[in-house]
Design goal:
The complex is a heterodimer of chains A (about 475) and B (about 625). Chain A is of the alpha/beta class and about 475 residues long. Chain A has 17 helices and 13 strands. In chain A, the strands form two sheets. Chain A has a seven-stranded mixed sheet with strand order 3-4-5-6-2-1-7. In chain A, strand 11, helix 11 and strand 12 form a beta-alpha-beta unit. In chain A, helix 6 (about 170-190) runs antiparallel to helix 16 (about 445-465) and helix 7 runs antiparallel to helix 15. The longest helix of chain A has 25 residues, at about 170-190. Chain A is flat and about 80 Å long. The relative contact order of chain B is 0.12. In chain B, strands 1, 2, 6, 7, 8, 9 and 21 form a seven-stranded mixed sheet that branches. In chain B, about 35% of the residues lie in helices and about 20% in strands. Chain B is globular, with a radius of gyration of 27 Å. The chains are: A alpha/beta (about 475), B alpha+beta (about 625). The interface between A and B is large, with 38 and 46 residues.
Chain lengths: ~475, ~625
C-alpha cells in the first residue's frame, strides 16, 4: 500500500455512482467530518445542528456556500466513531444527484474547511475501505468482496460478490485446506516419527485423498471463466462486411439507438461499445468497422478493420453478421479468419430474399476456415432481421448462453472464483498439489511431498487471506475506487 | 565480599548448555568462570545415554560447524553410531549415537580444564548481584557466601530451579537423581521481575544387565559405515562397541500399569507441571492409546564399564514397587533388578518470550539464559542455546554486532525464534517439521551453512577450517563438472542404461541430467561417463562427502530451488524491521489480542510478528501499513 495515500485527516468523496440520478450521497470520514458539514448546514425549522442532532438519524437542512449562496436542500446524518463503516466519525450528505452538482457541493465543503483550518481533503482510491480495514471493521477477504460488490454492474456480479461476502469461497477453500493440512501432517509424521510409521494411513488412502484435493481444486478453477464473466461481464464483437447491418443489429439487440446507422458502407471506423445487461449478465456489445478486401479500402478504413480484428480475437464471443440478401462476403470472411472464440453466425436481413442458406455458409467456411467450421455453423447459425425485429430475441438468448458457458448455464449459486487474484492463487495451489501427487506416484520421500503440500497450503491460505503475503494487501487495495 | 578476581563472563551451571557457553566465551578471548553444583556431573546426561536423533542430530552438526563441543564429545565417547531415516531423503536423515555417560562427562571436564581462560569451580549460586538502577547484572552470590563479579552472566541451570522429583507419592527436592535442587536462584530471578512457569519431564528406570535374559530380545547393531558428528573427526575412525536390544510391552504389562494409576503422581493430581506430548510416560501411552497392544522398548547401555541399562520408552513416575511389578511382566525381565527407579521431575523455567533473539533477557543487561531453563528439553537443544548465548554474550562484551541465525540458516535459528517469538507450553524439542526450509537445513551441509561463521568468530580450529575450504572447493569443481560434461548416446551408454532400467538417451545429456534420474547414483553416472569415453573423470581420491553432497545438490536441485524461492519470500517479511521502541499499544486497528502480544513480546520484524500465536494475517497487514507509514514519515491515518 502506498503510505502517501494513507495520510491522516478527514476525507470526503462522492459515494454514489457518477451520472444523473435522483439522489447523490457525499460521505465524509475523520475527526472533522461533523464540523465540516455543520459549517455550511442550516437545519430546516430551527432544528439542532448536526453535531447536536441524534446520531444515525437523517436531518433536513439547507446547504449554503460560505458567504450565503444556496447550494441544495439535503438530508444529513452522522455516525459517531467507532460505530460507523470506517470506525471514525462519518457524515453522509444526501443531496440531489448529478456529478456536476455533487462536485460543486464537495468543493464548497473543501473551500470552507480550508478557510476554517480543518484538515478536510478528497479521499484517495479505496481510502474509506482502507480506514475501515485499519480500524478492524473489515477483514481482507470481506474487504475484497466489498470492492467486488461496489464494482458489480450486473445482477450476476452482485450475486457472486454477495456470495463471497457471505463467506462462500472461504468455507469452500477452508474445507480443502483442512484436507491438505491432514495430508501434510501425515507426511511430517513420517519424517519425524519413523518408528510410528505403522500407525499412519495407507499410501493408497493418502493418494486417494490427495487426488480428491486436486479434483476439487480443478472443479473450483473450472468456475473461473464463468466467475470472471459473472463479475466483470463479457465483451462481444459484432463483425462483418460493410453494410451487413452490424450497427442495426446492435441497436436491435440493445433495444435503443446506440450506434450511428447509415446506408453508406464504412460508417463505423473505430469500434463502439454499448454496455447492456442480458438476463443478469453484463455484456459489452461492440460494433466494429466493416471488413472488406484491403485493396478497396482507404487508410482510415484499413485501420478500423485492423482494430476490428484485434477485438474479435480478444472478445469473449464474436457475432459474425452476414447480409443474407447479397452473396457471401468472401473478402470479409477471409480477413476475419478462423476465430479462437465462440462464434455466432447471424444471417441478417432475413426479411429480404435470401442469396444463400446455412448449408451454403457451412460449405464456404469449410473451404475458407477449415472443415470443423461446417459444424460450427450448424451449432451457431441464426436468422434475424434488425429492421423488423424478427429473430433478434433468439440472437440475444443464444449470445447469453454462449457467454455463460456450460458452468454458467448450470450455475445455481455455487462458489465461484471471480477475481484474477483468486484464480492465480487457486492455480498455484493446484500446481503444487499436482506436483505432490506426481511426486507421490514416483515414490518421492515424505519430506519432498511436504514441500509441495506446504506450497499448496500457502497458496490456499493466500486465497482466503489466512496467510500473510505482503503483495496481497497491495493488490486488494489497488482495486478500490473513491468514496466506497 | 566480592572475590578478588573479576571475570568477563560467569556461566552458572555446567551441563550441556553451560559447557558450550563457557567454551565459546573462552575461545573468543574472554576470562570465563564456569560454576557447577557438582563437578563430578559436568555435562551429565540426566536421561538417555544418547546424543543426536531427528533434528537433534542436525543441531549437533550445526554446533560442530560453529566450533562447539558436543559433536566431538559424542564422537570421542560414542559406543554405537546410527544414521536414522536412511530410507528417506537426505534432509530428514540424522546421526545418533549411544554414548558412554561416564566417558562423556570425563571428556568434557578435561576438555574444559584444558581450555585457556576457563576457570571451573564447584558452587551453588543462590542469587544474582545486580545494579537495579542501571538494570544490569554484575555477578552472582553463592550459597557459601562467595561473590563472583563479571560483565555478563549466562544461566544454564537445567531442571534444577526448584526441582522436585516424584517417585510414586515420594517427593524429593532435587534437580536430578541424587543431586540437590536450586531454591534460591529461582527466587532471585522472580525478584528481578522475570516470569517463571513450571514444567514436568520424566525419565526411565535403569536396570542391572545381569538380571535380564537377553535371549528374549532382538539385537540392534550400529551402522557398518559410520558418519561422525564432528567435521573434525576423520571418517572411518569410529567403531561400534556395543549392541542395543529391542522388545515390546504386552497387555499384561499394560494391565499392571493401569492397576497402578491411582498411585501415579501424574494421574492423581500431584504433578502440576506440563509434560511433553512427544515423550509420554508409559502411563500416558497406556491411558491415551488403550487400543494399542504393545509399545516398543529399546534397551541402551549407560556405558561400557557399567552394568546399568537404560530402558528407552518406559519413562515412569510410578512407585518403585509398582515399577518392579510391571517390569517383571516384560519378556526376559522375570528377575529384573532396578538400579535406579524412573521418576518425574517438576521444575521452574523462565518464559523465554522475555528474551531477545540473542538469549539475553530484555530487561536486564548482561543476563543471558540458555538450555532447559528456557523451557526446552534435550541435551542438543540445550547445548545449541549455550553456544548461542555464549557467543552473543562475548560479542556484546566486545561491542560487536550479535549473531542471530535465521530460520532459513539453521535449526538453531528455528529453535531460538520459536522460543522468543512463541514461547512454549510444554518442554520444547525440535522436529524437522518445525523447520519450514528443511530441505536446505540438512545435517550433511551444516558446514557449508555455518562454518564460515564459526571461523569468523574464532571458534573453529584453523586446520578444520582449512580442510573444509579445500573440501568446498572440490565440491564446486565437481558440481561444475557434472553440469558441463555431456555424454553422447553411444551403444555402450545405452546398454548400461538398459541394464539399470533407465530410459535410453535420445540426444546428448549432461552428467547432472543423468544424476537427476532416481535410478542412477553418482557411481552409475561415472560408469556411464567411462562407457561414453569421456575423459573428464572426477578428481582423484574424491572424498565420499564431496560425492554425496554433489549427488544431493544435483538430484534435489528442483526442490532446493523452490525452497530458495520460499526463503526469498520469507525474507521479505523478515526484512521489515520494527523499531526497538515501537509503540504497539498505540496502533489503531489491531485486534486487542495482537496489541497485547506485540507489546509483550516486542517482535523485531514483521516476520517474527507473524509467527506469534494468535496473531492473524489481518493484524500483520495493519502492522505493516503502520510501519510503512512511519518509514515514510507520514501518519498512517
Amino acid at each position: 500500500m502506498n503510505a502517501a495515500e494513507a495520510v491522516g485527516g478527514t476525507i470526503v468523496a462522492v459515494a454514489t455512482a457518477p451520472g444523473a440520478s435522483g439522489v447523490g450521497v457525499l460521505r465524509l470520514s475523520g475527526p472533522s467530518a461533523v464540523a465540516a458539514v455543520d459549517a455550511l448546514f442550516v437545519p430546516v425549522g430551527g432544528g439542532p445542528s448536526l453535531a447536536s442532532a441524534p446520531p444515525r438519524r437523517l436531518g433536513l437542512g439547507r446547504l449554503h456556500r460560505d458567504g450565503g449562496g444556496f447550494l441544495d436542500e439535503v438530508l444529513a446524518v452522522r455516525f459517531p466513531a467507532p460505530h460507523s463503516f470506517t470506525g471514525e466519525d462519518v457524515v453522509e450528505v444526501h443531496a440531489h444527484g448529478g456529478s456536476f452538482h455533487l462536485a460543486g457541493i464537495q468543493s464548497a465543503l473543501l473551500e470552507s474547511a480550508r478557510r476554517r483550518g480543518m484538515d478536510l481533503r478528497p479521499a484517495g482510491p479505496g481510502e474509506f475501505t482502507r480506514r475501515a480495514f485499519l480500524n478492524g471493521k473489515l477483514d481482507l477477504t470481506r474487504a475484497e468482496a466489498v470492492a467486488d460488490l461496489i464494482h458489480a454492474d450486473s445482477e450476476l456480479a452482485r450475486e457472486a460478490a454477495a456470495l463471497q461476502l457471505a463467506g462462500g469461497l472461504g468455507s469452500a477453500v477452508g474445507a480443502l485446506r483442512g484436507s491438505v493440512v491432514a495430508l501434510l501432517a501425515e507426511a511430517e509424521a513420517a519424517c519425524d516419527f519413523p518408528e510410528e510409521e505403522g500407525q499412519l494411513p495407507s499410501p493408497e488412502s493418502f493418494r486417494r485423498r490427495l487426488g480428491g484435493c486436486v479434483a476439487s481444486l480443478e472443479g473450483l478453477l473450472s468456475t473461473a471463466r464463468f466467475g470472471r464473466a459473472a463479475s466483470r461481464g463479457v465483451r462481444v464483437a459484432l463483425c462483418g462486411a460493410p453494410n451487413s447491418g452490424k450497427s442495426s443489429l446492435l441497436n436491435a439487440l440493445c433495444g435503443e439507438e446506440r450506434a450511428i446507422v447509415a446506408a453508406s458502407p464504412g460508417t463505423t471506423r473505430d469500434w463502439l461499445e454499448a454496455r447492456v445487461e442480458f438476463e443478469g449478465l453484463a455484456v459489452g456489445l461492440c460494433d466494429t468497422a466493416g471488413l472488406r478486401p484491403a485493396a478497396e479500402a482507404d487508410e482510415v478504413e484499413r485501420e478500423g478493420a485492423r482494430r476490428a480484428l484485434d477485438l474479435a480475437r480478444a472478445a469473449d464471443a464474436v457475432v459474425v453478421v452476414l447480409d443474407r440478401s447479397r452473396p457471401l462476403p468472401l473478402g470479409a470472411l477471409r480477413a476475419l479468419g478462423p476465430l479462437p472464440r465462440e462464434v455466432l453466425f447471424v444471417a441478417n436481413k432475413a426479411d429480404l430474399v435470401g442469396a444463400w442458406d446455412a448449408s451454403g455458409l457451412a460449405g464456404t467456411l469449410a473451404t475458407e476456415w477449415g472443415d470443423p467450421w461446417a459444424g460450427a455453423v450448424a451449432a451457431g447459425y441464426l436468422e434475424a432481421s434488425a429492421r423488423t425485429g424478427q429473430g433478434v430475441a433468439e440472437v440475444r438468448a443464444r449470445l447469453v448462453s454462449v457467454c455463460l458457458g456450460e458452468k454458467g448455464r448450470a450455475w445455481s449459486g455455487e462458489v465461484l472464483l471471480t477475481s484474477a487474484r483468486h484464480e492465480a492463487a487457486a492455480r498455484e495451489a493446484l500446481e503444487a498439489l499436482r506436483g505432490a501427487l506426481e511426486a507421490f506416484g514416483s515414490g518421492a520421500p515424505p519430506e519432498l511431498l511436504a514441500v509441495d503440500l506446504r506450497a499448496g497450503l500457502d497458496a490456499l491460505g493466500s486465497l482466503v487471506g489466512s496467510t500473510t503475503r505482503a503483495e496481497v494487501v497491495e493488490e486488494i487495495f489497488k482495486r478500490f475506487c473513491i468514496g466506497k | 565480599m566480592p572475590y578478588a578476581r573479576t571475570f568477563d563472563v560467569i556461566v552458572v551451571g555446567a551441563g550441556h548448555a553451560g559447557c558450550e557457553a563457557a567454551n565459546a566465551c573462552a575461545r573468543m578471548g574472554l576470562e570465563t568462570l564456569l560454576l557447577g553444583m557438582n563437578l563430578d556431573a559436568v555435562a551429565a546426561m540426566s536421561c538417555n545415554p544418547a546424543v543426536g536423533g531427528l533434528a537433534k542430530g542436525h543441531v549437533v552438526r550445526e554446533i560442530d560447524a560453529l566450533g562447539g563441543l558436543m559433536g566431538r564429545a559424542a564422537d570421542a565417547t560414542g559406543i554405537q553410531f546410527k544414521m536414522l531415516n536412511t530410507s528417506k531423503g537426505p534432509a530428514v536423515r540424522a546421526p545418533r549415537a549411544q554414548c558412554d555417560k561416564a566417558a562423556y562427562r570425563a571428556w568434557m571436564k578435561s576438555r574444559l580444564e584444558a581450555t585457556p581462560r576457563v576457570t571451573l569451580k564447584q558452587a551453588q549460586v543462590e542469587e544474582l548481584v545486580v545494579d537495579r538502577e542501571g538494570r544490569r547484572v554484575l555477578g552472582v552470590r553463592t550459597r557459601t557466601g562467595m561473590e563472583f563479579m563479571g560483565g555478563a552472566v549466562v544461566i544454564t541451570t537445567g531442571t534444577f530451579l526448584k526441582g522436585l522429583i516424584h517417585i510414586g507419592s515420594h517427593r524429593i527436592e532435587s534437580g536430578r537423581s541424587g543431586e540437590a535442587a536450586a531454591q534460591g536462584l529461582s527466587r532471585s530471578l522472580r525478584e528481578l521481575g522475570l516470569e517463571l512457569g513450571r514444567l514436568k519431564t520424566g525419565t526411565n528406570p535403569r536396570v542391572d544387565r545381569r538380571s535380564l535374559d537377553f535371549s528374549a530380545f532382538g539385537e540392534l547393531p550400529g551402522d557398518e559405515r559410520i558418519q561422525p558428528f564432528s567435521h573434525a573427526t576423520p571418517a572411518g575412525s569410529l567403531r561400534n562397541r556395543t549392541l542395543c536390544w529391542t522388545l515390546r510391552t504386552n497387555t499384561s504389562v499394560h494391565d499392571s500399569i493401569r492397576a497402578s494409576l491411582t498411585r501415579s503422581p501424574l494421574y492423581n493430581g500431584t504433578i502440576q507441571g506440563v509434560g511433553p506430548r512427544y515423550c509420554p510416560s508409559i502411563e500416558d501411552k497406556v491411558v491415551r492409546f488403550p487400543e494399542k497392544e504393545w509399545h516398543q522398548i529399546i534397551i541402551e547401555p549407560e556405558g561400557l564399564d557399567t552394568q546399568e541399562l537404560y530402558l528407552n520408552g518406559l519413562s515412569t513416575s510410578l512407585p518403585e514397587e509398582d515399577q518392579y511389578a510391571f517390569l517383571r511382566r516384560l519378556p526376559g525381565f522375570d528377575h529384573v533388578e532396578i538400579m535406579r527407579p524412573g521418576y518425574a521431575v517438576e521444575y521452574d523455567f523462565v518464559l523465554p518470550t522475555q528474551l531477545h533473539p540473542t538469549l539475553a533477557t530484555r530487561d536486564w543487561q548482561g543476563l543471558y539464559l540458555a538450555g532447559q531453563i528456557n523451557g526446552t528439553s534435550g541435551y542438543e537443544e540445550a547445548a545449541g542455546q549455550g553456544l548461542w548465548a555464549g557467543i552473543n554474550a562475548a560479542l556484546w562484551l566486545k561491542g560487536l554486532a550479535p549473531l542471530v541465525l535465521g530460520r532459513d540458516q539453521a535449526y538453531l535459528g528455528v529453535l531460538v525464534d520459536d522460543l522468543v517469538s512463541k514461547g512454549t507450553q510444554e518442554p520444547y524439542r525440535l522436529f524437522t517439521s518445525l523447520a519450514e526450509f528443511r530441505l536446505l537445513l540438512r545435517q550433511d551441509n551444516a558446514d557449508l551453512r555455518l562454518m564460515d561463521t564459526g571461523a569468523s568468530l574464532g571458534l573453529v580450529d584453523p586446520d578444520v577450517y582449512t580442510a573444509f575450504k579445500k573440501r568446498r572447493d572440490r565440491l564446486e569443481r565437481e558440481l561444475d563438472r557434472l553440469e558441463k560434461v555431456r555424454l553422447d548416446p553411444r551403444p555402450a551408454v545405452q546398454n548400461l542404461l538398459q541394464e539399470w532400467e533407465s530410459p535410453s538417451l535420445e540426444s546428448p545429456c549432461t552428467l547432472g541430467e543423468l544424476l537427476r534420474r532416481p535410478e542412477l547414483d553418482w557411481t552409475r553416472v561415472d560408469a556411464l561417463r567411462a562407457a561414453a569415453g569421456s575423459s573428464v573423470a572426477p578428481e582423484q581420491d574424491l572424498e565420499p562427502w564431496v560425492r554425496e553432497q554433489a549427488e544431493i545438490q544435483v538430484k534435489y536441485q528442483g526442490y532446493i530451488q523452490r525452497q530458495q524461492i520460499q526463503v526469498a519470500q520469507f525474507k521479505k517479511l523478515e526484512a521489515q524491521q520494527i523499531p526497538e521502541h515501537w509503540d504497539f499499544l498505540g496502533l489503531q486497528g489491531l485486534s486487542s489480542e495482537a496489541r497485547q502480544k506485540f507489546s509483550k513480546l516486542r517482535p523485531r520484524s514483521l516476520g517474527q510478528a507473524s509467527r506469534i500465536s494468535g496473531v492473524t494475517p489481518a493484524d500483520i497487514s495493519v502492522l505493516w501499513v503502520h510501519l510503512e507509514a512511519s518509514q515514510r514519515n507520514v501518519a498512517p491515518l
